[in-house]
Write a structure and sequence with these properties.
- By secondary structure, the protein is an alpha+beta fold.
- The protein has four domains: about 90 residues, Rossmann fold (3-Layer(aba) Sandwich); about 60 residues, Dna Ligase, domain 1; about 120 residues, ATP-grasp fold, B domain (D-amino Acid Aminotransferase, Chain A, domain 1), CATH 3.30.470.20; about 90 residues, Glycinamide Ribonucleotide Synthetase, Chain A, domain 4 (Alpha-Beta Complex).
- The protein binds adenosine monophosphate and glycine.
Length: about 425
């Protein structure tokens, strides 16, 4: 099969690494790809991932059999619809199905209508009405922009003042913040369950836990994710069965009942409250950095599974997993998620690899023949080991040998699970 991967972050590097192991793979391209992905695929940088027509033309020209779409933006932008119209198979939901991430209101209303467990909520298009509701409900309370806001459109307000200010901040998200969701605060432990689906059958992957806050002890601003580990013991067998029966299967069925066939990866962000999983959010794609810890543990041929999802022929066969743990620590540029420097030379990657790490590039580029930083999240240092404790010890030995100016990382990834 000839495959085109869309995206160039750490998640896409992990996808490329796993896809490259498939015996079915023939030619492999990535747009835009990255210096990490370049180990596996030919990277094409001069086509924008928001230019559907150009992407379709490229796929036709290269006889692509399957397009794998990594990030949410091109999915919400209808890339898979454009590919389908041209007769090209793709892994990833179509535009209307991607609304499950693209519009929080769509997702919340779907969950309410089909009784999928989630926080109670109200939708507002007027700031004053939202504020009245918040005053009546009190804090803690959560304020969310309806549309895509690069992970920044959610404010978990601990006080009434913060919640009221959050309503005003929603204006900063433009159209994405013109409607807002105010929802009940859920107190529990978070986990992410990603699942492959062809629109009818659904195959959950092992649960992972992300660390969204920038500093140790879950302090500081929300980020795209500072590290992850899998499997996450908070999702034990019982909870995992509940997630499948109460959340994943009903959501795919609810979408079908609405005339929507969801094909690709469905990401359920969960809060485990008193032993019951509730949905915090859905995403229409693989998680980042969850993918970097889930795929290294997967035994199966991911490309074959993705092709079955795209074709609508996913089998009932359960996925096999290595009996190990994986941990990923993100090396970020100092200052992230606010302003940070770029173009800082990176060294120590080869050394970390000799110590057993997989290095997934999240924000790097080659400049004058040298590897430099080009994003807030720079590298995802990932290891697998027989136990979670061993994986944690090993990952930090690897992190220590990588250097760039002002590098920042959390020192407590997976600590919650080891307590
Ligand atoms: P989201 O982008 O919807 O995943 O929200 C970002 C983060 O905000 C989540 O990972 C949670 O940590 C937190 N969050 C969102 N909604 C709630 C809620 N209803 N209760 C508590 N925390 C929440
Ligand atoms: N790790 C959070 C996300 O992928 O949305």
């Amino acid at each position: 099969m000839n495959v085109l991967l869309i995206g160039g972050g750490g998640r896409e590097h992990a996808l490329a690494w796993k896809i490259s192991q498939s015996p079915r793979l023939e030619k492999f391209f990535a747009i835009p790809g990255s210096p990490g992905i370049a180990d596996f695929a030919e990277c094409v940088e001069n086509i924008s991932i928001s230019d559907n027509a150009a992407l379709v033309n490229f796929a036709k020209e290269k006889n692509i059999d399957l397009v794998v779409v990594g990030p949410e933006a091109p999915l919400v932008n209808g890339l898979t619809d454009a590919l389908e119209a041209a007769g090209i198979k793709s892994f990833g939901p179509n535009k209307i199905a991607a609304q499950i991430e693209g519009s929080k209101i769509f997702a919340k209303r779907l969950m309410k209508k089909y009784k999928i467990p989630t926080a109670d909520f109200e939708v507002f298009d007027s700031a004053d009405a939202a504020k009245d509701y918040i005053r009546a409900k009190g804090a803690p309370i959560v304020v969310k922009a309806d549309g895509l806001a690069a992970g920044k459109g959610v404010i978990v307000a601990q006080t009434l003042e913060e919640a009221l200010a959050a309503v005003d901040e929603m204006k900063n998200f433009g159209a994405a913040g013109s409607k807002i969701v105010v929802e009940e605060f859920m107190d529990g432990e978070e986990a992410s369950v990603l699942a492959l689906t062809d629109g009818e059958k659904i195959l959950p992957l092992i649960a992972a836990q992300d660390h969204k806050r920038v500093f140790d002890g879950d302090k500081g601003l929300n980020t795209g994710g500072m590290g992850a580990y899998a499997p996450a013991p908070v999702v034990d067998e019982k909870i995992s069965a509940r997630v499948e029966e109460k959340i994943l299967k009903p959501t795919i069925a609810a979408l079908r009942a609405e005339g929507i066939i969801y094909r690709g990866c469905l990401y359920a962000g969960l809060m485990i409250v008193g032993g019951e999983p509730k949905v915090v959010e859905f995403n229409c794609r693989f998680g980042d950095p969850e993918t970097q810890v889930v795929l290294p543990l997967m035994e199966d041929d991911l490309l074959a599974l993705m092709d079955e999802c795209a074709a609508g022929t996913l089998s009932d066969k359960k996925i096999s997993w290595k009996n190990q743990s994986a941990v990923c620590v993100i090396l970020a540029s100092g200052g992230y998620p606010k302003a940070y420097k770029k173009n800082l030379p990176i060294d120590g990657i080869s050394k970390a690899k000799t110590l057993g790490a997989m290095i997934f590039h999240a924000g790097t580029k080659i400049s004058d023949g040298e590897l430099v930083t080009s994003g807030g999240r720079v590298l995802g240092v990932t290891v697998t080991a027989p136990t979670l404790q061993e994986a944690v010890d090993k990952v930090y030995r690897c992190v220590e040998v990588i250097h760039f100016d002002d590098a920042h990382f959390r020192k407590d990834i997976a600590a919650k699970a080891l307590k």
